[in-house]
Protein backbone atom coordinates (compact mmCIF):
# COMPACT_ATOMS: atom_id res chain seq x y z
CA UNK A 1 0.00 0.00 0.00
CA UNK A 2 2.97 2.32 -0.53
CA UNK A 3 1.24 4.74 -2.87
CA UNK A 4 0.90 8.51 -3.06
CA UNK A 5 -2.08 8.55 -0.70
CA UNK A 6 -0.12 6.55 1.87
CA UNK A 7 2.75 9.02 1.87
CA UNK A 8 0.39 12.00 1.96
CA UNK A 9 -1.34 10.56 5.00
CA UNK A 10 2.03 9.72 6.56
CA UNK A 11 3.28 13.32 6.40
CA UNK A 12 -0.13 14.56 7.54
CA UNK A 13 0.21 12.37 10.65
CA UNK A 14 3.72 13.70 11.29
CA UNK A 15 2.41 17.24 11.15
CA UNK A 16 -0.66 16.46 13.29
CA UNK A 17 1.43 14.71 15.98
CA UNK A 18 4.30 17.22 15.79
CA UNK A 19 4.07 18.26 19.46
CA UNK A 20 4.50 14.64 20.56
CA UNK A 21 7.29 13.94 18.06
CA UNK A 22 9.28 17.12 18.86
CA UNK A 23 9.77 16.09 22.50
CA UNK A 24 10.87 12.58 21.48
CA UNK A 25 13.11 14.05 18.75
CA UNK A 26 14.93 16.35 21.21
CA UNK A 27 15.53 13.64 23.83
CA UNK A 28 16.62 11.09 21.21
CA UNK A 29 18.98 13.57 19.57
CA UNK A 30 20.58 14.39 22.93
CA UNK A 31 21.15 10.71 23.78
CA UNK A 32 22.64 9.95 20.36
CA UNK A 33 24.78 13.10 20.53
CA UNK A 34 26.31 12.11 23.88
CA UNK A 35 27.14 8.52 22.92
CA UNK A 36 28.41 9.41 19.44
CA UNK A 37 30.58 12.22 20.84
CA UNK A 38 32.23 9.80 23.25
CA UNK A 39 32.71 7.27 20.44
CA UNK A 40 34.22 9.87 18.09
CA UNK A 41 36.67 11.32 20.61
CA UNK A 42 37.69 7.93 21.98
CA UNK A 43 38.35 6.50 18.51
CA UNK A 44 40.20 9.61 17.35
CA UNK A 45 42.50 9.93 20.37
CA UNK A 46 43.09 6.18 20.54
CA UNK A 47 44.06 6.12 16.87
CA UNK A 48 46.50 9.02 17.27
CA UNK A 49 48.03 7.60 20.44
CA UNK A 50 48.46 4.15 18.93
CA UNK A 51 50.12 5.71 15.89
CA UNK A 52 52.47 7.54 18.25
CA UNK A 53 53.22 4.41 20.28
CA UNK A 54 53.86 2.36 17.15
CA UNK A 55 56.64 4.78 16.23
CA UNK A 56 58.32 4.35 19.61
CA UNK A 57 61.23 1.96 20.35
CA UNK A 58 60.34 -1.66 21.01
CA UNK A 59 61.78 -1.63 24.54
CA UNK A 60 62.74 0.91 27.19
CA UNK A 61 65.25 -0.05 29.89
CA UNK A 62 65.09 1.80 33.21
CA UNK A 63 67.10 1.61 36.41
CA UNK A 64 65.10 1.15 39.61
CA UNK A 65 66.12 1.96 43.16
CA UNK A 66 63.79 1.58 46.17
CA UNK A 67 60.87 1.40 43.76
CA UNK A 68 61.79 4.66 42.04
CA UNK A 69 63.22 5.26 38.56
CA UNK A 70 66.77 6.63 38.74
CA UNK A 71 69.33 7.62 36.12
CA UNK A 72 71.05 4.74 34.36
CA UNK A 73 74.75 4.43 33.51
CA UNK A 74 75.63 4.95 29.86
CA UNK A 75 77.92 1.91 30.15
CA UNK A 76 74.78 -0.23 30.02
CA UNK A 77 74.58 0.48 26.29
CA UNK A 78 77.43 -1.96 25.55
CA UNK A 79 75.81 -4.70 27.65
CA UNK A 80 72.48 -4.20 25.90
CA UNK A 81 74.07 -4.25 22.44
CA UNK A 82 75.51 -7.69 23.24
CA UNK A 83 72.01 -9.17 23.41
CA UNK A 84 71.15 -11.14 20.28
CA UNK A 85 68.69 -9.39 17.96
CA UNK A 86 68.95 -5.95 19.58
CA UNK A 87 69.56 -2.88 17.39
CA UNK A 88 69.40 0.94 17.51
CA UNK A 89 70.35 1.21 21.18
CA UNK A 90 70.08 4.88 22.21
CA UNK A 91 70.29 6.73 25.50
CA UNK A 92 67.47 9.13 26.27
CA UNK A 93 67.33 12.22 28.45
CA UNK A 94 64.01 13.65 29.50
CA UNK A 95 62.25 14.82 32.63
CA UNK A 96 59.89 17.31 34.23
CA UNK A 97 60.82 20.93 34.85
CA UNK A 98 58.67 22.82 37.34
CA UNK A 99 57.31 26.18 36.14
CA UNK A 100 56.83 28.23 39.32
CA UNK A 101 54.46 30.98 38.07
CA UNK A 102 51.80 28.41 37.08
CA UNK A 103 52.82 25.63 39.49
CA UNK A 104 52.89 23.10 36.66
CA UNK A 105 55.55 21.24 34.74
CA UNK A 106 57.12 21.05 31.29
CA UNK A 107 58.54 17.91 29.74
CA UNK A 108 62.13 18.53 28.69
CA UNK A 109 63.42 16.17 25.99
CA UNK A 110 67.12 16.04 25.18
CA UNK A 111 67.96 15.11 21.60
CA UNK A 112 71.23 14.32 19.91
CA UNK A 113 70.56 15.30 16.30
CA UNK A 114 73.71 13.55 15.08
CA UNK A 115 72.54 10.08 16.09
CA UNK A 116 69.70 8.05 14.65
CA UNK A 117 66.60 8.91 16.61
CA UNK A 118 64.93 6.15 18.57
CA UNK A 119 61.54 7.77 17.99
CA UNK A 120 60.23 8.32 14.48
CA UNK A 121 57.58 10.62 15.90
CA UNK A 122 60.14 12.91 17.54
CA UNK A 123 62.06 12.98 14.27
CA UNK A 124 58.88 13.97 12.40
CA UNK A 125 58.33 16.83 14.85
CA UNK A 126 61.71 18.30 13.99
CA UNK A 127 61.98 17.33 10.30
CA UNK A 128 61.63 20.95 9.14
CA UNK A 129 64.46 22.07 11.40
CA UNK A 130 67.38 23.96 9.91
CA UNK A 131 70.14 21.97 11.59
CA UNK A 132 72.96 24.41 10.91
CA UNK A 133 71.14 27.36 12.45
CA UNK A 134 69.75 25.32 15.34
CA UNK A 135 73.21 24.12 16.36
CA UNK A 136 74.85 27.56 16.11
CA UNK A 137 73.94 28.30 19.74
CA UNK A 138 71.85 27.03 22.62
CA UNK A 139 68.31 26.87 21.21
CA UNK A 140 65.12 25.04 22.15
CA UNK A 141 61.89 24.09 20.36
CA UNK A 142 58.68 24.37 22.37
CA UNK A 143 55.24 22.77 22.12
CA UNK A 144 52.09 24.79 21.47
CA UNK A 145 50.99 24.66 25.11
CA UNK A 146 54.38 25.89 26.30
CA UNK A 147 54.34 28.71 23.73
CA UNK A 148 50.96 29.97 24.95
CA UNK A 149 52.23 29.91 28.52
CA UNK A 150 55.49 31.69 27.65
CA UNK A 151 53.56 34.33 25.69
CA UNK A 152 51.30 34.90 28.67
CA UNK A 153 54.28 35.58 30.93
CA UNK A 154 56.15 37.60 28.27
CA UNK A 155 58.83 35.01 27.50
CA UNK A 156 58.73 35.72 23.77
CA UNK A 157 62.37 35.07 22.80
CA UNK A 158 63.95 33.08 25.60
CA UNK A 159 63.45 31.53 29.02
CA UNK A 160 65.79 31.40 32.00
CA UNK A 161 65.98 27.94 33.55
CA UNK A 162 67.23 27.23 37.06
CA UNK A 163 69.43 24.14 37.32
CA UNK A 164 69.51 21.79 40.35
CA UNK A 165 72.78 23.58 41.32
CA UNK A 166 70.74 26.81 41.55
CA UNK A 167 72.44 28.29 38.50
CA UNK A 168 70.58 30.29 35.86
CA UNK A 169 70.70 29.21 32.24
CA UNK A 170 69.03 31.30 29.53
CA UNK A 171 68.00 29.45 26.37
CA UNK A 172 66.57 31.10 23.28
CA UNK A 173 63.39 29.85 21.61
CA UNK A 174 64.17 28.67 18.09
CA UNK A 175 60.67 27.63 16.99
CA UNK A 176 57.38 26.18 18.23
CA UNK A 177 55.40 23.12 17.18
CA UNK A 178 51.87 23.46 15.82
CA UNK A 179 48.61 22.14 17.25
CA UNK A 180 48.56 19.10 14.97
CA UNK A 181 51.29 17.51 17.11
CA UNK A 182 50.03 18.77 20.49
CA UNK A 183 48.82 15.37 21.69
CA UNK A 184 52.49 14.42 21.93
CA UNK A 185 54.25 17.77 22.21
CA UNK A 186 51.87 20.15 24.00
CA UNK A 187 54.02 20.48 27.14
CA UNK A 188 57.30 19.48 25.48
CA UNK A 189 60.56 21.41 25.22
CA UNK A 190 63.10 19.90 22.82
CA UNK A 191 66.76 20.85 23.19
CA UNK A 192 70.24 19.32 22.71
CA UNK A 193 70.85 16.36 24.99
CA UNK A 194 73.80 17.85 26.87
CA UNK A 195 71.82 21.00 27.62
CA UNK A 196 68.91 18.93 28.91
CA UNK A 197 71.28 17.05 31.23
CA UNK A 198 72.40 20.32 32.84
CA UNK A 199 68.83 21.56 33.42
CA UNK A 200 67.55 18.22 34.71
CA UNK A 201 70.65 17.45 36.77
CA UNK A 202 71.51 14.27 34.90
CA UNK A 203 75.16 13.22 35.31
CA UNK A 204 77.63 13.37 32.42
CA UNK A 205 77.82 9.58 32.14
CA UNK A 206 74.17 9.01 32.95
CA UNK A 207 70.90 8.90 31.02
CA UNK A 208 67.23 8.84 31.95
CA UNK A 209 66.74 5.49 30.25
CA UNK A 210 67.90 3.47 27.26
CA UNK A 211 65.71 2.70 24.24
CA UNK A 212 66.24 -0.13 21.78
CA UNK A 213 64.60 -2.06 18.97
CA UNK A 214 64.27 -5.77 18.31
CA UNK A 215 63.27 -6.07 14.62
CA UNK A 216 62.36 -9.77 14.80
CA UNK A 217 59.06 -10.19 16.65
CA UNK A 218 59.91 -13.79 17.58
CA UNK A 219 63.10 -12.70 19.38
CA UNK A 220 61.41 -10.07 21.60
CA UNK A 221 60.33 -12.32 24.53
CA UNK A 222 63.84 -13.83 24.82
CA UNK A 223 65.47 -10.42 24.39
CA UNK A 224 63.38 -9.01 27.23
CA UNK A 225 64.42 -11.82 29.58
CA UNK A 226 68.10 -11.37 28.69
CA UNK A 227 67.87 -7.62 29.26
CA UNK A 228 66.36 -8.07 32.72
CA UNK A 229 69.14 -10.52 33.65
CA UNK A 230 71.91 -8.14 32.57
CA UNK A 231 71.88 -6.28 35.87
CA UNK A 232 69.91 -6.09 39.10
CA UNK A 233 67.08 -3.58 39.46
CA UNK A 234 66.46 -3.17 35.73
CA UNK A 235 62.94 -2.65 34.47
CA UNK A 236 62.20 -3.41 30.83
CA UNK A 237 59.01 -1.94 29.37
CA UNK A 238 57.80 -3.16 25.98
CA UNK A 239 55.88 -1.12 23.44
CA UNK A 240 53.01 -3.62 23.66
CA UNK A 241 52.68 -3.00 27.41
CA UNK A 242 52.42 0.75 26.86
CA UNK A 243 49.86 0.19 24.10
CA UNK A 244 47.81 -2.11 26.34
CA UNK A 245 47.86 0.47 29.15
CA UNK A 246 46.44 3.24 26.97
CA UNK A 247 43.84 0.98 25.36
CA UNK A 248 42.62 -0.13 28.79
CA UNK A 249 42.53 3.49 29.96
CA UNK A 250 40.37 4.67 27.08
CA UNK A 251 38.19 1.55 27.21
CA UNK A 252 37.58 2.27 30.90
CA UNK A 253 36.56 5.89 30.29
CA UNK A 254 34.41 4.95 27.30
CA UNK A 255 32.82 2.16 29.34
CA UNK A 256 31.70 4.60 32.04
CA UNK A 257 29.91 6.71 29.45
CA UNK A 258 28.44 3.58 27.85
CA UNK A 259 26.96 2.43 31.17
CA UNK A 260 25.42 5.86 31.74
CA UNK A 261 24.06 5.79 28.19
CA UNK A 262 22.49 2.35 28.62
CA UNK A 263 20.80 3.48 31.84
CA UNK A 264 19.54 6.64 30.11
CA UNK A 265 18.29 4.87 26.97
CA UNK A 266 16.47 2.20 29.01
CA UNK A 267 14.81 4.92 31.09
CA UNK A 268 13.85 6.77 27.91
CA UNK A 269 12.39 3.62 26.30
CA UNK A 270 10.35 2.86 29.42
CA UNK A 271 8.95 6.39 29.42
CA UNK A 272 8.28 6.10 25.70
CA UNK A 273 6.49 2.79 26.16
CA UNK A 274 4.38 4.20 28.96
CA UNK A 275 3.53 7.21 26.81
CA UNK A 276 2.36 5.09 23.87
CA UNK A 277 0.56 2.61 26.13
CA UNK A 278 -1.68 5.46 27.31
CA UNK A 279 -3.23 5.98 23.86
CA UNK A 280 -5.95 8.61 24.11
CA UNK A 281 -9.39 8.49 22.48
CA UNK A 282 -8.33 10.48 19.40
CA UNK A 283 -5.53 7.98 18.69
CA UNK A 284 -7.95 5.10 19.09
CA UNK A 285 -10.49 6.81 16.85
CA UNK A 286 -7.77 7.40 14.24
CA UNK A 287 -6.87 3.70 14.17
CA UNK A 288 -10.53 2.67 14.17
CA UNK A 289 -11.34 4.93 11.21
CA UNK A 290 -8.42 3.48 9.25
CA UNK A 291 -9.77 -0.02 9.85
CA UNK A 292 -13.27 1.12 8.94
CA UNK A 293 -12.13 2.41 5.53
CA UNK A 294 -10.44 -0.87 4.73
CA UNK A 295 -6.94 -0.64 6.18
CA UNK A 296 -5.61 -3.92 7.48
CA UNK A 297 -3.64 -4.31 10.71
CA UNK A 298 -0.54 -4.76 8.57
CA UNK A 299 -1.19 -1.44 6.80
CA UNK A 300 -1.75 0.40 10.09
CA UNK A 301 1.45 -1.01 11.60
CA UNK A 302 3.32 -0.15 8.41
CA UNK A 303 2.08 3.45 8.69
CA UNK A 304 3.21 3.69 12.31
CA UNK A 305 6.55 2.10 11.46
CA UNK A 306 7.20 4.71 8.79
CA UNK A 307 5.98 7.55 11.01
CA UNK A 308 8.21 6.67 13.96
CA UNK A 309 11.10 5.50 11.81
CA UNK A 310 11.32 8.97 10.27
CA UNK A 311 11.37 10.54 13.73
CA UNK A 312 14.06 8.12 14.94
CA UNK A 313 16.11 8.38 11.74
CA UNK A 314 16.23 12.17 11.70
CA UNK A 315 16.93 12.39 15.44
CA UNK A 316 19.77 9.88 15.04
CA UNK A 317 21.20 11.68 12.01
CA UNK A 318 20.95 15.06 13.70
CA UNK A 319 22.63 13.69 16.83
CA UNK A 320 25.53 12.25 14.79
CA UNK A 321 25.99 15.52 12.86
CA UNK A 322 25.96 17.55 16.09
CA UNK A 323 28.53 15.16 17.61
CA UNK A 324 30.79 15.53 14.56
CA UNK A 325 30.62 19.33 14.74
CA UNK A 326 31.21 19.32 18.50
CA UNK A 327 34.19 16.96 18.39
CA UNK A 328 36.02 17.87 15.18
CA UNK A 329 34.98 21.49 14.59
CA UNK A 330 34.48 22.87 18.11
CA UNK A 331 37.39 20.66 19.39
CA UNK A 332 35.27 18.95 22.08
CA UNK A 333 35.36 21.52 24.92
CA UNK A 334 35.07 19.90 28.37
CA UNK A 335 34.87 16.36 27.01
CA UNK A 336 38.45 16.34 25.73
CA UNK A 337 39.72 17.16 29.23
CA UNK A 338 37.94 14.09 30.60
CA UNK A 339 39.91 11.88 28.20
CA UNK A 340 43.24 13.74 28.23
CA UNK A 341 43.12 14.89 31.86
CA UNK A 342 43.52 18.20 33.66
CA UNK A 343 46.93 17.46 35.19
CA UNK A 344 49.13 19.69 33.06
CA UNK A 345 49.04 22.53 30.54
CA UNK A 346 45.78 23.32 28.78
CA UNK A 347 45.84 21.50 25.48
CA UNK A 348 44.67 22.81 22.13
CA UNK A 349 44.61 19.57 20.23
CA UNK A 350 43.30 19.13 16.71
CA UNK A 351 41.49 15.81 16.74
CA UNK A 352 42.02 13.69 13.65
CA UNK A 353 38.61 12.82 12.16
CA UNK A 354 38.21 9.07 12.43
CA UNK A 355 34.73 7.63 11.91
CA UNK A 356 33.97 3.93 11.87
CA UNK A 357 31.00 3.40 9.55
CA UNK A 358 30.49 -0.05 11.03
CA UNK A 359 30.18 1.42 14.53
CA UNK A 360 27.68 4.02 13.31
CA UNK A 361 25.54 1.35 11.65
CA UNK A 362 25.69 -0.88 14.74
CA UNK A 363 24.73 2.02 16.98
CA UNK A 364 21.83 2.87 14.65
CA UNK A 365 20.49 -0.70 14.70
CA UNK A 366 20.67 -0.94 18.50
CA UNK A 367 18.92 2.43 18.70
CA UNK A 368 16.19 2.05 16.08
CA UNK A 369 15.01 -1.51 16.87
CA UNK A 370 14.13 -0.92 20.58
CA UNK A 371 12.67 2.47 19.65
CA UNK A 372 10.23 0.98 17.12
CA UNK A 373 9.38 -1.99 19.34
CA UNK A 374 8.24 0.09 22.33
CA UNK A 375 6.15 2.27 19.99
CA UNK A 376 4.53 -0.41 17.86
CA UNK A 377 3.49 -2.87 20.56
CA UNK A 378 0.80 -0.57 22.07
CA UNK A 379 -0.38 0.38 18.54
CA UNK A 380 -0.66 -3.30 17.61
CA UNK A 381 -2.78 -3.97 20.72
CA UNK A 382 -5.24 -1.22 19.75
CA UNK A 383 -5.28 -2.21 16.07
CA UNK A 384 -6.29 -5.80 16.88
CA UNK A 385 -9.39 -4.95 18.96
CA UNK A 386 -12.90 -4.43 17.62
CA UNK A 387 -13.40 -1.23 15.59
CA UNK A 388 -16.69 -0.25 17.25
CA UNK A 389 -15.27 -0.71 20.73
CA UNK A 390 -12.24 1.42 19.76
CA UNK A 391 -14.49 4.31 18.61
CA UNK A 392 -16.49 4.14 21.83
UniProtKB/TrEMBL annotation:
<dbReference type="Pfam" id="PF02687">
    <property type="entry name" value="FtsX"/>
</dbReference>
<dbReference type="GO" id="GO:0098797">
    <property type="term" value="C:plasma membrane protein complex"/>
</dbReference>
<comment type="similarity">
    <text>Belongs to the ABC-4 integral membrane protein family. LolC/E subfamily.</text>
</comment>
<feature type="transmembrane region" description="Helical">
    <location>
        <begin position="354"/>
        <end position="380"/>
    </location>
</feature>
<feature type="transmembrane region" description="Helical">
    <location>
        <begin position="255"/>
        <end position="273"/>
    </location>
</feature>
<feature type="transmembrane region" description="Helical">
    <location>
        <begin position="309"/>
        <end position="334"/>
    </location>
</feature>
<feature type="domain" description="ABC3 transporter permease C-terminal">
    <location>
        <begin position="259"/>
        <end position="386"/>
    </location>
</feature>
<dbReference type="InterPro" id="IPR003838">
    <property type="entry name" value="ABC3_permease_C"/>
</dbReference>
<feature type="transmembrane region" description="Helical">
    <location>
        <begin position="21"/>
        <end position="41"/>
    </location>
</feature>
<protein>
    <submittedName>
        <fullName>ABC transporter permease</fullName>
    </submittedName>
</protein>
<dbReference type="InterPro" id="IPR051447">
    <property type="entry name" value="Lipoprotein-release_system"/>
</dbReference>
<keyword id="KW-0472">Membrane</keyword>
<keyword id="KW-1003">Cell membrane</keyword>
<keyword id="KW-0812">Transmembrane</keyword>
<dbReference type="GO" id="GO:0044874">
    <property type="term" value="P:lipoprotein localization to outer membrane"/>
</dbReference>
<keyword id="KW-1133">Transmembrane helix</keyword>
Amino acid sequence: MLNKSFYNFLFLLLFTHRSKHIAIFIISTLLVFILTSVMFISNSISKDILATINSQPDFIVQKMKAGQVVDIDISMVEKIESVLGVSNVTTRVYGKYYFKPLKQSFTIVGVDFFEEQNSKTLLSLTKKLNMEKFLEKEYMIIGSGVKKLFDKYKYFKSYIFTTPLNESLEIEIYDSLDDTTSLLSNDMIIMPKELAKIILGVGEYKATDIALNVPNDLERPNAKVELILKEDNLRVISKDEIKSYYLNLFSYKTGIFLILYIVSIITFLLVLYQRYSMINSSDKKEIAILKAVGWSIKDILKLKVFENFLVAFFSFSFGVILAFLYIFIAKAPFLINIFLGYSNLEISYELTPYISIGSIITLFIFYIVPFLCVVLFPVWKIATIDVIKSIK
